[in-house]
């Protein structure tokens, strides 16, 4: 039976991650390169890059590199100190920091130099937040949702930014607290719309399909969220990491006519395409 397969718009990589992965992938295969930490939390992508001579290296091992070795900065970006260190080693730095994140670095650096204290709404252990904090001498106040700010002493002159993947709800909660105490408040909402747009498109699509397939890591929070949204609208929603988890028998033996597909932020296009191919294979096997 011929089925219609619809891939949700904005599935998979956001602009910044795609740019970083493309930077690491589109190179001469002979040339050895390094990424500072895994370019993305997807083992398939990391293994594929290793096959083309791109290896992840941690900052603690940076001394093992030779002058002029190429190191790629991933989309999360890094602190000023890390950038200075890489420069001091005379490495060939390819900066694939997402331009939206670089913009936050610049703003935080400028306002910090103008005497503002910096507050970041986000997860203090997330590499992006660690990087941003490194553009204001690691002096930022970091809060997830403001619940720890109620009793804290808030600086009078404050610039607030957010992790790009933070929830609007947390941003609003924090601002509602700061507004009561700050004398001079600069609020730069740096939340990126990529996640929200991906979720909205998945929601719209899941309302009109017989089967919705969400592709992504089982431990990935953005993939789990996509799954929950789709499941609310389409009871027949599957969460798979790749095409090997999709059974041809399952597809063959149903009267599913329209299949929707979306994918989490760490899922490359080629994994999405392999799922599509598997569905087509099931059609042929009928
Ligand atoms: S800022 Fe947006 S586009 Fe850039 S890496 Fe983060 S989520 Fe992706």
Automatic annotation (TrEMBL):
Keywords from the named record: 4Fe-4S, Iron, Iron-sulfur, Isoprene biosynthesis, Metal-binding, Oxidoreductase
Pathway connected to this protein: Isoprenoid biosynthesis; isopentenyl diphosphate biosynthesis via DXP pathway; isopentenyl diphosphate from 1-deoxy-D-xylulose 5-phosphate: step 6/6; Isoprenoid biosynthesis; dimethylallyl diphosphate biosynthesis; dimethylallyl diphosphate from (2E)-4-hydroxy-3-methylbutenyl diphosphate: step 1/1
EC nos: 1.17.7.4
Positions annotated as active site in the UniProt record: 128
HAMAP family in the record: IspH
Family: Belongs to the IspH family.
Name of the protein described by the UniProt record: 4-hydroxy-3-methylbut-2-enyl diphosphate reductase
């Amino acid at each position: 039976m011929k089925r219609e397969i619809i891939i949700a718009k904005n599935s998979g990589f956001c602009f910044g991650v795609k740019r970083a992965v493309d930077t690491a992938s589109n190179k001469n295969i002979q040339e050895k390169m390094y990424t500072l930490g895994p370019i993305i939390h997807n083992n398939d992508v990391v293994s594929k890059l290793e096959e083309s001579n791109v290896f992840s290296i941690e900052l603690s091992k940076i001394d093992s590199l030779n002058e002029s070795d190429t190191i790629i900065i991933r989309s999360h970006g890094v602190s000023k100190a890390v950038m200075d260190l890489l420069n001091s080693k005379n490495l060939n730095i390819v900066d694939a920091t997402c331009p939206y994140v670089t913009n936050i670095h610049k703003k935080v650096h400028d306002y910090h130099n103008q005497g503002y204290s910096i507050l970041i709404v986000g997860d203090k252990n997330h590499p992006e937040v660690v990087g941003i904090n490194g553009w204001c001498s690691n002096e930022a106040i970091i809060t997830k949702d403001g619940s720890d700010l109620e009793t804290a002493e808030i600086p009078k002159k404050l610039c607030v930014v957010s992790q790009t993947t933070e929830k609007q709800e947390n941003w609003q909660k924090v601002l509602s607290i700061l507004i009561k105490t700050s004398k001079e408040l600069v609020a730069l909402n740096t939340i990126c719309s990529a996640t929200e747009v991906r979720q909205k498109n998945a929601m719209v699509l899941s309302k009109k399909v017989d089967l919705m397939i969400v592709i992504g890591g089982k431990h990935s929070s953005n993939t789990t969220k996509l799954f929950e949204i789709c499941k609310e609208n389409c009871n027949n929603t599957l969460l798979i990491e790749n095409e090997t988890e999709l059974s041809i028998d399952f597809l063959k033996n149903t009267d599913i006519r329209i299949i929707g597909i979306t994918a989490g932020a760490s899922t490359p296009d080629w994994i999405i395409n392999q799922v599509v191919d598997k569905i087509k294979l099931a059609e042929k096997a009928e």
